[in-house]
């Protein structure tokens, strides 16, 4: 069904989705790994010695024949049969890899089991699996089977799988050729992303909820076809990979939560912390792709909250407006395709944030940390705060105090955290560590009905009108995405999230930096940044957005800071003016 090189040609693109902002070159890893993986000279059915950092011989005969490895071998074979019945690995395509879980061995050093390439997946047996070390070296290669079986060969996806393990700390990776994952990339041949929202199965994707917009990046299957005329080494040399990174459609900053990458006309890669997570998410992704295809057949738009008619949702809607966008070709006013909204001073009175939300978070920091100290969310909050405070101390930031190690006791740690958080709130710092913790504190307040989101009177009506016109509305605030969902989901006007298509926070960048709006434009998939209208009350944000090509209007609301003279932006006093 596919050749060795079919997997190779898009490897640099997919693998870069795993890379952090430092963009560590993949070439050394890939060349080292590919030298070790296919045809590495390991005798079939034999193992190579390897010792982990703690001196445990992971490739000893006893360990290789132990229950952990045996059970994982059998699991991979069983999953391949299941996936074959689902149509994910038919025609010898697709693959799966799982780490051998062992509490005694650090995850990066755990052995890796990987299905071979070019074999009948539904007929695979436990002994057919490749066993690899944590760095990708083959420790065991299966014995060849008699004719007409082909000689065993490690998956062509192996270097890519290794990047998922290395850069995303994955516990398993699944590569599916499921029909849904192939067809969904063909619905819009120019789309660089698949998007869907307001579907129950989105909740099965790590870090997502029903109201979230799920975004899966799409890369081209034949983007670098010309490189295939050269040898594998030349195809992935350093210059080639650096070029791939600089033109990559999938920078990790733009997709911090992605657990999958679609390959157009080909399939999908999905990874998870465990094989259960990877399998569950794969099932949810395929369900959502199938739903999108069927909605498309019905003429409905899967990417909008209401799933209304495609022709309504995707057209430019003309209407008489007071502060609309001028269409030079028709000399008429038209609505934008997307509207991006600030919150404080734009949709919501500044007093609500300054006099209600901030004091609530400040007054409940200690109580919240004490009550939730052992939870995963709070431990992640503490980790982020520790990192931020260390940086603050190194730069001499006022109010920063050292946070003692966990061994000093819960009370001592919480006391230092409270002191730092209070100083951050007083300084109104727009940093992720603070905003994430505040979001978790506010979540408790909203759940207990101690907080209700406040909005200007025109906002709910405008959101409903824009939604009816098929205009997608997004939020961009320095508050965390969780906090944004809470504010819009718990209001005197009911749940307003049904009118919103997505949320952005400082994880995508500072609101006063042009690069942040460039990233948002790319994430929204518009043909031009000018198709986005950004509404804010802050001139510096308006300047940054305009520099990125967005249309901008400034919201003038009671209590907002006065605007400088000759700022050059159109202003509105109400969303109903648009």
TrEMBL record:
Entry EC no(s): 4.2.1.109, 3.1.3.77
Binding site for substrate 2: 477-478, 511
Record keyword ATP-binding present: no
Cofactor annotation remark: Binds 1 Mg(2+) ion per subunit. Binds 1 zinc ion per subunit.
Cofactor: Mg(2+); Zn(2+)
Binding site for substrate 1: 157
Record-level GO cellular component terms: cytoplasm
Keywords: Amino-acid biosynthesis, Hydrolase, Lyase, Magnesium, Metal-binding, Methionine biosynthesis, Multifunctional enzyme, Zinc
Active site per database record: 200
Binding site for Zn(2+): 175, 177, 266
Example of a GO MF term: zinc ion binding
Class II aldolase/adducin N-terminal domain sequence ranges: 74-293
Region (Methylthioribulose-1-phosphate dehydratase): 1-301
Key word Magnesium present: yes
Positions bound to Mg(2+): 342, 344, 537
Pathway participation: Amino-acid biosynthesis; L-methionine biosynthesis via salvage pathway; L-methionine from S-methyl-5-thio-alpha-D-ribose 1-phosphate: step 4/6; Amino-acid biosynthesis; L-methionine biosynthesis via salvage pathway; L-methionine from S-methyl-5-thio-alpha-D-ribose 1-phosphate: step 3/6; Amino-acid biosynthesis; L-methionine biosynthesis via salvage pathway; L-methionine from S-methyl-5-thio-alpha-D-ribose 1-phosphate: step 2/6
Alphabetical list of Pfam families matching this protein: Aldolase_II (PF00596), Hydrolase (PF00702)
CDD domains attached to this UniProt entry: HAD_EP
InterPro entries attached to this UniProt entry: Aldolase_II/adducin_N, Aldolase_II/adducin_N_sf, Enolase-ppase_E1, ENOPH1_eukaryotes, HAD-like_sf, HAD-SF_hydro_IA, HAD_sf, MethylthioRu-1-P_deHdtase_MtnB
Family: In the N-terminal section; belongs to the aldolase class II family. MtnB subfamily.
Protein name: Probable bifunctional methylthioribulose-1-phosphate dehydratase/enolase-phosphatase E1
């Amino acid at each position: 069904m596919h050749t060795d090189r079919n997997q190779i040609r898009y490897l640099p693109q997919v693998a870069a989705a795993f890379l952090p902002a430092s963009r560590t070159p993949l070439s050394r890893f890939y060349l080292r790994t590919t030298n070790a993986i296919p045809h590495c000279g390991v005798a079939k059915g034999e193992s190579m010695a390897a010792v982990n950092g703690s001196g445990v011989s992971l490739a000893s005969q006893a360990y290789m024949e132990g229950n952990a490895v045996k059970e994982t071998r059998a699991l991979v074979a069983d999953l391949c049969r299941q996936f074959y019945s689902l149509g994910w690995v038919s025609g010898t395509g697709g693959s799966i890899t799982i780490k051998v879980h062992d509490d005694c061995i650090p995850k990066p050093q755990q052995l890796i089991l990987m299905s071979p390439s070019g074999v009948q997946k539904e007929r695979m047996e436990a002994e057919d699996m490749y066993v690899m070390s944590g760095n990708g070296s083959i420790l065991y290669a299966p014995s060849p089977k008699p004719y007409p079986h082909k000689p065993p060969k490690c998956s062509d996806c192996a270097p890519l799988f290794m990047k998922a393990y290395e850069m995303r700390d994955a516990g398993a990776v699944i590569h599916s050729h499921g029909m849904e994952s192939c067809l969904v990339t063909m619905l819009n041949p120019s789309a660089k992303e698949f998007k869907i929202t307001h579907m129950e199965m989105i909740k099965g994707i790590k870090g997502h909820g029903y109201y979230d917009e799920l975004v899966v990046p799409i890369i081209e299957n034949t983007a670098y076809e010309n490189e295939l005329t050269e040898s594998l080494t030349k195809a992935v040399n350093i210059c080639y990979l650096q070029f791939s990174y600089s033109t990559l459609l999938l920078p990790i900053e733009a997709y911090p939560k992605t657990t999958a990458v679609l390959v157009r006309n080909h399939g999908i890669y999905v990874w998870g912390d465990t094989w259960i997570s990877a399998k569950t998410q794969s099932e949810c992704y395929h369900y959502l792709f199938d739903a999108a295809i069927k909605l498309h057949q019905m003429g409905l738009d899967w990417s909008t909250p209401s799933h209304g008619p495609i022709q309504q949702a995707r057209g430019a809607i003309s209407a008489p407006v007071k502060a609309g966008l001028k269409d030079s070709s028709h000399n008429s006013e038209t609505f934008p395709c997307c509207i991006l909204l600030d919150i404080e001073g734009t949709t919501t009175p500044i007093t609500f944030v300054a006099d209600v939300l901030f004091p609530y978070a400040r007054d409940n920091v200690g109580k919240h940390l004490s009550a939730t100290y052992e939870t995963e969310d709070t431990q992640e909050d503490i980790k982020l705060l520790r990192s931020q405070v260390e940086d603050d101390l190194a730069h001499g930031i006022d109010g920063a105090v050292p946070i003692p190690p966990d061994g000093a006791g819960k009370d001592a740690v919480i006391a230092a955290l409270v002191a730092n958080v209070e100083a951050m709130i007083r300084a109104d710092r727009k940093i992720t560590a603070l905003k994430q913790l505040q979001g978790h504190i506010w979540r408790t307040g909203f759940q207990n009905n101690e907080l209700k989101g406040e909005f200007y009177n025109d906002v709910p009506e405008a959101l409903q009108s824009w939604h009816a016109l098929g205009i997608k509305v997004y939020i961009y605030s320095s508050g965390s995405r969780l906090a944004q969902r809470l504010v819009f989901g718990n209001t005197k006007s009911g749940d307003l999230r049904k009118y919103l298509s997505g949320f952005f926070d400082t994880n995508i960048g500072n609101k006063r930096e042009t690069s942040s709006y460039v990233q948002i434009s790319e994430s929204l998939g518009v043909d031009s940044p000018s198709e986005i209208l950004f509404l804010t009350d802050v001139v510096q944000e308006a300047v940054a957005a305009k520099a990125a090509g967005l249309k901008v209007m400034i919201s003038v609301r009671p209590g907002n800071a006065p605007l400088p003279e000759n700022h050059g932006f159109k202003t509105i006093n109400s969303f109903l003016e648009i």
